[in-house]
Design brief:
DNA polymerase, domain 1, 213 residues, Alpha-Beta Plaits, two-stranded antiparallel sheet, 2 domains, alpha+beta
Length: 213
């Protein structure tokens, strides 16, 4: 764990592009939504690299590109989906506007239409430093190998609690050769008992601190 910013703002987007379908042998009769979508995917990568400071943490990933259902037909529409991760709230607010500008301009340049649906997710997770130190100290006392983490671009909805109550989120290792979300993720279930022991020690001690404050 660590004091301060730990996990990122998590936002999701869907981009819908509407061109004009055509036979693949006569593309000039249509407006190729796949080509437009490809341009948009590439252009979106200029937001983290060219629009916002390199000193700021910004990740924009397109994770789904859905189009067509036949090998010889240019589809009329394309749908893209992805996520944006940030730590800076001002950048988080600015990104949808910049994305709409970019998407709309590219689509219009090809004679198509495009729209952005923005779905705001959990905010950045910011730990209270004193509670992060408390969690680390107790973990060391219980025999854990501890580490002060670095800011992550993953998200964690525990952040909602921390926007109302001081506290700290901690991550406990899994002893898996592969990380979370990898198909080979295989945690050592024997660690669950150790983790439960840690939290059952942490909770009453934290309440004692709050009660005596």
């Amino acid at each position: 764990t660590r004091g301060g910013a730990f996990y990122a703002n998590v936002d999701r987007f869907t981009i819908r592009i509407r061109g004009k379908g055509a036979h693949a042998a006569r593309p000039h009769e249509g407006i190729d939504s796949i080509v437009i979508g490809s341009h948009i995917v590439t252009a979106l990568q200029t937001l983290p690299s060219r629009v916002f400071s390199a000193l700021e943490a910004v990740v924009l990933s397109v994770t789904r590109f859905t189009a067509g259902n036949s090998w010889n037909v240019l589809p009329q529409s394309v749908e893209l989906e992805g996520t944006v991760r940030t730590h800076n709230d001002a950048i988080r607010e600015a990104i949808p506007h910049r994305m709409r500008q970019l998407i709309g301009s590219i689509a219009a340049g090809f004679g198509a239409e495009a729209e952005l649906e923005w779905i705001a997710g959990p905010p950045a997770l910011v730990n209270t430093p004193a509670w992060a130190d408390f969690a680390l100290d107790l973990a060391q006392a219980r025999g854990f190998a501890t580490e002060r983490g670095t800011p992550q671009m993953g998200g964690e909805d525990f952040a909602f609690y921390l926007h109302h109550v001081p506290g700290a989120f901690v991550s406990i290792g899994s002893a898996s050769a592969f990380g979370l979300h990898h198909p080979g993720f295989d945690p050592d279930e024997g660690m669950l008992e150790t983790a439960v022991d840690y939290f059952t020690q942490l909770a009453p001690r934290a309440l004692d601190i709050v009660a005596s404050a």
